[in-house]
Every structure is written in C-alpha cells, then in structure tokens.
Amino acid sequence: MPDEQHNSGRRLLLQSAAATLLLSVSRIGMAASSHVVAVRVWPSSTYTRVTLESNYSLKYKQFRLQNPARLVVDISGIQLNSVLKELGQKITSTDPNIQQLRVGQFDTSTVRLVIELKQPISPHLFTLTPVAEFRHRLVIDLYPENNPQTSSDGESDDPLLALLEDYNRGNVARTLPPEKKKDGRAGHQRPIIIMLDPGHGGEDPGAIGKHKTREKDVVLQIARRLQKLIKQQPNMTVYMTRNEDIFIPLKVRVAKARKQRADLFISIHADAFTSRAARGSSVFALSTKGATSAAARFLAHTQNESDKIGGVSKSGDRYLDHTLFDLVQTASINDSLRFGKEVLTRIGKVNHLHKHKVDQAGFAVLKAPDIPSILVETAYISNLEEERKLRTAHFQQQIAESILAGIKAYFADGGMLARR
Question: To 10 degrees, the CA torsion angle through 270, 271, 274, 277?
C-alpha cells in the first residue's frame, strides 16, 4: 500500500511537471509567432496600398492566378485573427484596382490573401522595419500595368505614375530633364510653374494634435486652397505632388517638380514639438552645411523619416543622394532664401512667427538642384490653440493667400528666377 501511494504520488508529480513543461513550450511558441495587429488599405487614382502591421517581421510568398485575375500572397508563421478578418471589409467598390480581397487560414501556420483584381496589375511587395509608432509592416502596392494614359512609346502620360514606376525600378531620375535654364522669363514669356507639395499622406499621417487633427489632412486642404488661388492667376500654372490621401516618396515628390520643370517648389507642413507651448509659423530652405538651429535639425530629421514610415528608401539617385552640390544648387538655395523671406513676411501678418528669419536644414524634399524650394510650417499642430486654428477654413485660407502673396512679391522683386 505505501508503495502504491508512493507510485501514485510520483505519477501525479510527473504529470504535473509534464503539464508545466507543455504550458511553457506553448507560451514560448506563441510568443515567437507573429500576430497581425493592424491592417490598412489606401486606394487612390494612382495605386492601391495594402499594409499589414505585425509584432514580428512577416515572411511571404506571392504568385498570380488567372480567370479571374488574382494576386495570391501566402504569409507564414501567423494565425488568422479578428484583425486579419477585417481586411476584406476595408475594400470599397470605388477602389480602382481591387475587386475583392479574401483572407483565410491556408494551413496550420500560413494565412493566404487572395486579391481579385479589376485590371492588370504590377504588384510591389516589401517589408518595413519598426519606426515611430509603427511595428513591422508588410506592404503590398498595386500599380496599374496598362495605364490608360500610356502613350504609344510605352511612357505614361501621368508624370506621377511614370515616376513611381521608375522609382520602383530603382531609377527615378531616368526620364528627368537636364538641369538647364528654362526658356523665356517666368511670368512674362511663359507662365510661372509652381509645384505644391502637401506633406505626408496615406499611411504617413504626419504629426497628430491632441484633438486627433492629422497633419496630412490639414496641409492637403491648405494646398488645395492655394492651388485654387494660383489657378486664378493669368500668368501661373500649378501642379500638386499629391491631391488625395496617398503616400508619395520624398524623392518622387522632388522628381515630379523636375519633370514638370517647376520654377518654385513649396512643401506645406504643420509643425509639432514635445512641448505644447511651442507655437508659430516657420519657413525653411535647404542647407548644405548643416542646420542653422537645433529646431531646424530636429524638424529635418522628423520630416526625412517620412520615407521610412511610408515606404522603402532607395538610393542611387544622383539628384538626391549626392553630397556635393554644384553652383546651380547654390544659386537655387540663395533664391530659396529670398523667396522664403517674402513668404515668411506675409505669413507673419496672419500668425505669430516662431522665428523671424528663414531657417535652414538638410530637408530631403528640398533637394532639387535647380528649383528654388521652401518648406512652410504653417503652425504648430501640437499647440492647442494653433491646432484649433489649423482646422478652420478661415486660417487655412489666410495661409494660402499669404503664400500666394509671397510668390507675387518674389517675382515682382525681379529675382534670378524672373530673369530666366
């Protein structure tokens, strides 16, 4: 009897130990597996982006099926969860590229995405490492394969789509015009060509105010107001790097300005800082010798992080990656400073100025070698009062009118650009 009790107790002890070991292994296995924590879909007239965000890096394989045309993406090491199930519901009937999207558990450790397509698509898939508040991401970009605006030589008549295609091939500068003086005087023999660049967009919201105001939204609204004002001018032509909620890489924004042979490049943002007391409008130009203030250095770093938030960064672009700027670049910076001063003076009449001179830093989006370029920080979205103002149509219109007044004053002053 004592032996039976001893054996019974030993069995219970072994069973308990085995159960503990199994639970421990199970927990380790669960911790090592990826869990999708967020899914997002950004449809636009140019391309559709699907993003899956996970606590671990996602491994995937892709292949195509026909009748109907489908893109299949198998993601290993994950389980179907409630977040993934939401993905199909995020596809709208107005999406120009996706008919429908189905998600299912393909086998014990693989989730399969089946994307039914509305038209022939060129897919670009890549992963992004964590940055800012984002975790690991798998990005699926769907570009139209047969652009309806494609000309007979195979080149797209849509400059943005063509540049995005070149960017994905790793050669965004392939079709850009050479750096040279433009024909005729801007505003006299030909229109002044202006490129407006609403910052951020799509998956990159930019700064977010306490009341959830997103930088990408307010700067697009300001840019649209400014676009409307410029269109009313008899001697000006205006383009936008984006006119919808879409992510455009910084290099593509600059390249589009060069593709359109712009005379001015104006990037529009809404500043943010760790202290809500910071307030006021600012204007920045490019610096080749480092930032002129700690604030400018901080801001340039945060703005240049946009490419890491929104998409994979590619190198090899001689217009943007070079570190030695020629005399054309130097002249453009001087023009930028003069143009920026005109804009800053006008904005100072409608809002407090954070600094009363044009600041400088190494903003990637200002690196077009032959285009005077400025970055306008309209106000501090992190400041409660200025966040409120940024949401109003009145303040947005005031900023747009101030920038236009700065453009007119710059050309009326007979600067270098006006003599080109």
Answer: -90
Rounded-to-integer distance, Cα 181 and Cα 418, Å? 11
CB distance 267 to 283 below 8 Å = no
Instruction: Evaluate whether the domain defined by 179-419 bears CATH number 3.40.630.40.
Output: yes
The residue count of the chain comes to 420
Q: How far apart are CA 126 and CA 105, in angstroms?
A: 22
Average pLDDT, the chain: 81
- Please state the rounded mean pLDDT for residues 326-340: 75
Q: What is the pLDDT of residues 28-79, one digit of tens each?
A: 344 446 789 999 999 998 899 999 999 999 999 999 999 999 999 999 999 9
**Rounded alpha-carbon distances, angstroms, from residue 53 to 44, 95, 133, 149, 307:** 20, 21, 11, 33, 17
Contacts of 121 (CB under 8 A, 6+ apart): 69, 71, 97, 142, 143, 144, 145
Kindly report, residue by residue over 259-292, the tens digit of the pLDDT: 899 999 999 999 888 889 889 999 988 876 655 5
The CA distances from residue 158 to 89, 151, 246, in Å, are: 30, 10, 16
For residue 328, the model assigns a pLDDT of 45
Q: Which residue has the higher pLDDT, 286 or 256?
A: 256
CA 347, CA 382: separation in Å to the nearest integer?
Answer: 19
Q: Delimit the domains of the chain by residue range.
A: 36-144, 179-419
At 317, list the tokens.
């672009």
Burial code (b: 16+ CB inside 10 Å, e: under 16) for 325-355 equals eeeebeebbebbbbbbbbbbbbbeeebebbb
**Contact indicator for 267, 376 with CB cutoff of 8 Å:** yes
Closest CA to 128 of 216, 241, 204: 204
In angstroms, rounded to a whole number, what is the distance separating the alpha carbons of residues 183 and 213? Answer: 43
| Architecture (CATH level 2) of domain 36-144 | Sandwich (2.60)
